[in-house]
Design goal:
- With 255 residues, this protein is an all-alpha fold.
- The chain has a domain of 119 residues: Serine Threonine Protein Phosphatase 5, Tetratricopeptide repeat.
- The chain is 80% helix and 0% strand.
- It contains 11 helices and no strands.
- Helix 1 packs antiparallel against helix 2 and helix 5 packs antiparallel against helix 6.
- The radius of gyration is 21 Å and the shape is globular.
- The relative contact order is 0.06.
């Protein structure tokens, strides 16, 4: 009995060490991702995914989380085709394990919608983006950050599709919901206002665009600083507010 117990204890310790190693790999990947080092994050997430799959199984929540992170990192690092393929697998696996409307599944669907939109597969991206936005608003409410993220994605997909008026309506409603609840200088509110300004400019509504850009740029400067890339991009966009063609690529790669 003592020998069997010691063996079990040894296996338990090895499992704990392996779990800590996997968590460390995942944490390193997340840190690299936040630093904008997507290719290096992809390597860390690959190690995490392979370790989780071997030790926990393909359908374990930790494995599915690692798979989704890996897919997003591969896409962000420039391997678009592989990234989209992995995102599709992530959606299928999470749907099978968690169900179609589980928040974890909707996160994967939202990522796939964004990837489709960015590479120009607008019809597919729009259909998925609007589905996620609707489900999240129903499940989480209109001011939840995940709902606002989806509303922004759906609006950008609409703009990329060419339906800029509808995109503006979505953004105006989301901004009206979000700002009183989160405040004007929340990052999601700034993102909604920035993209609303871009849509105004795309339609030639330069006066509305300039006023909206001015507010977004002031808030971004206060929160992020004048030299932050997002703030710089806002001021750059503001100088082109009378040139609708500057905003033609809204919602896609190329801006």
């Amino acid at each position: 009995m003592w020998t069997r117990g010691r063996r079990r204890s040894g296996r338990s310790r090895r499992s704990q060490v392996a779990a800590r190693e996997l968590a460390a790999h995942h944490g390193a990947g997340v840190q690299l991702w936040h630093e904008g080092r997507a290719a290096e994050a992809s390597t860390a997430f690959t190690e995490t995914f392979e370790g989780c799959r071997a030790r926990l199984g393909r359908g374990h929540p930790a494995t599915l989380a690692a798979a989704g992170n890996l897919a997003a990192a591969r896409f962000a690092s420039g391997d678009w085709q592989t990234g989209i393929e992995l995102l599709g697998i992530s959606v299928a696996d999470r749907t099978r394990v968690f169900g179609r409307t589980d928040p974890r599944t909707l996160t994967a669907v939202d990522a796939l919608a964004t990837a489709y939109r960015l590479v120009g597969r607008i019809d597919e991206g729009l259909a998925l983006a609007e589905r996620v936005a609707e489900e999240r608003e129903r499940l989480l409410g209109p001011v939840h950050l995940e709902t606002l993220t989806s509303q922004l994605g759906a609006a950008l997909a609409r703009a990329a599709f060419g339906d800029v008026e509808t995109a503006i309506a979505v953004l105006e409603r989301a901004l009206a919901d979000a700002e009183p609840f989160h405040g004007p200088r929340h990052e999601h509110v700034i993102a909604l206002r920035s993209n609303l300004a871009r849509c105004y400019a795309l339609l030639g509504r330069s006066r509305d665009a300039l006023a909206t850009f001015d507010r977004a740029a002031a808030d971004a400067t206060a929160v992020l600083g004048r030299q932050h890339p997002e703030t710089v991009a806002l001021f750059d966009d503001m100088t082109h507010v009378h040139q609708p063609t500057w905003f033609y690529a809204i919602g896609r790669f190329g801006r």
